[in-house]
Amino acid sequence: MRILRPSDAPALAAAYVRNCEYLAPWEPVRPEEYYTEVWQAADIANRLAAMKSGDGYPLGLFAGDAIVGRFNVAGIVRGSFQSAGLGYWVDSTYTGRGLASTAVGVIVETARDGLGLHRLEASTLVHNAGSQRVLVKAGFRQIGMAPRYLEIAGEWQDHNLYQIVLHD
């Protein structure tokens, strides 16, 4: 796992094309352009600019040159909050191997020790048991449920909300 680079756009586009049907129930409806190298290059550039200003970290999980997962620490707020959001997915052919759990565990350690954050938050669709297991295994606790929280798969859907406090 490492920070995405501009040169990763082809691999990221290929990963999204490969996982389009698999990710559809868990993500917003995407325009066709989303699955292109051009779109992914622009997205990586935007996220790297956000990283430069301290607002987030775009990470890719790799198997050789192929991207097999995407993890984003985003919306970093400093000051008295010291918090960020976490989003992620793993390639359909790599699920069930503990990759997401391991990656989220590393991100939690990095957020605490490297970024100096106090907390991370994440949300899952209420029926996404796999992602909930990943979060709980990494130490996240459910803190609530948000009705109609995000528009996913073309519908406003309820989400379970999770957080991990990184410093006691």
**Would you tell me the overall average pLDDT?**
97
The tally of beta strands, per DSSP, is: 7
- Net shape: globular
**Helix coverage percent of residues?**
25-40%
**CATH architecture level-2 label:** 3-Layer(aba) Sandwich
* CATH structural class: Alpha Beta
The CATH homologous superfamily: Gcn5-related N-acetyltransferase (GNAT)
Instruction: Count the DSSP helices.
Output: 5
Give the termini distance in whole angstroms: 27 Å
* Radius of gyration, in angstroms, nearest whole number: 15 Å
The CATH topology label is Aminopeptidase
Q: What sequence of helices (H) and strands (E) makes up the elements?
A: EHHHEEEHEHEE
Domains (count):
1
Report the sheet with the most strands, covering strand number, pairing sense and barrel closure. Answer: 7 strands, mixed
Low-pLDDT windows of residues: none
How would you write the strand order of the largest sheet? 1-2-3-4-5-7-6
Structural class given helices, strands, pairing? alpha+beta
What amount of the residues lies in strands?
35-45%
Keywords: Acyltransferase, Transferase
Family: Belongs to the acetyltransferase family. RimJ subfamily.
Pfam family, one: Acetyltransf_3
Domain N-acetyltransferase: 18-167
